Amino acid sequence: MDPVKVGLLGLGTVGGGTATILKRNAKEIARRAGRGIEIDFIATLDPARASELGVENTRLTKDAFEVVADPDIDIVIELIGGYSPAKELVMAALENGKHVVTANKALIAMHGEEIFAKAQEKGLVVAFEASVAGGIPIIKALREGLAANNVEWLAGIINGTGNFILSEMREKGRDFDDVLAEAQALGYAEADPTFDVEGIDAAHKLSILSSIAFGIPLQFDKTYTEGITKVTQQDVLYAEELGYRIKHLGVARRTEKGIEQRVHPTLIPESRLIANVNGVMNAILVQGDAVGATLYYGAGAGDEATGSAVIADLVDITRSLSTDPQNRVPYLAFQPNELQDTPVISIDQVETAFYVRLSVKDQAGVLAEITSILDAKNISIEAFLQKELNADSGEADIILLTNVVNEGDMNDALAQIDALAVIDGKATRIRVESLS
Ligand code: HSE
Questions:
Q1: Which candidate in 5, 105, 205, 377 is catalytic?
Q2: For the whole model, what pTM was predicted?
Q3: Going by C-beta distance under 8 Å and a sequence separation of 6 or more, which residues neighbour residue 397?
Q4: Residue-range domains of the chain with CATH
């Protein structure tokens, strides 16, 4: 059988990894797919990179629209990233009858429904395994491997750059900007690194996972999103003293009120496996009612790791070229007419425990004032640390761990605490998850 012809849009980190693996493992991949897979046409603004990567016998262009319009191409791989022109290219590829593989989480989270509808109309496949957690086959696991389960919750470290920064801060006391620059040089960070450090990249990925886990529409706009920029070295060390690690976590949980969908820094007991996932590695813990807890761990970014997921999708599409489109695996795991309108709840309705750090003046009665405010909201203190007085400022840090409380109540209590004359600045609060 003739090889499947692929058009590759973008020859950056992931494009390079994909081309390298396809060349190196061509024979094994063909044995699995049932026929060869060849990159026939590449769109790149840097044609010299193709020869650096040893890509031969491939047409090159600087115009990606030429590739998606080319009649010889069966499958388009979109590795340009961002919303536009990625969306226009993917829609044009589908309009022209080409299957699509993409690593673009922003695109799927924002425009997935429209893209899937077009693919459905045309009887084509859009595959996006590489969009979440790099090389970890989490979409396949959720969509297929866990199909028997009612997923109760999932929690994941799904931004490698953020995890790399938090790990280096804890292990080596390195400076935030310095570690971010290294992540950029290694090709882990997004083109706009604020997407990594402000939690937007993780929110894109979480909204995809949440839809697949619970059979609800993609709702990136309803994801509560908080990044790691406010996490200080001090918080990392205090958390450690209390037996916790701070991780940037994406959490999606089914509750009676609706679906929690949130990304934010989180204290996790250090005894949990996921608390020990360091560097650029990602991990996702999924709790299903039948299987219990399952944990998926691996490289969340990088050239060949993400290329591995891109090629797994290519192999899936190649195998399915002769399958009736109606009988393929549904994009969001559930049949399109079976998606539910279970609401994604606001962060005020979420219930978690909290780590609270306060800078307090050295005066009698300070603790009593704080505890009476917490008490009025039924918030109890599970652990407490008081650090010694700083002689220069005349203030001391106190750190509290609370029981599981309603976030709205916690916000009300913290607003009152922040207003106390004995408190300097605002309280720092980080959510705590036991993940048990
Ligand atoms: N910027 C992303 C990360 C790349 O650091 O995880 C992989 O999606």
A1: 205
A2: 0.92
A3: 234, 238, 357, 358, 359, 360, 385, 386, 387
A4: 4-135+303-338 (3.40.50.720), 138-299 (3.30.360.10), 350-432 (3.30.70.260)
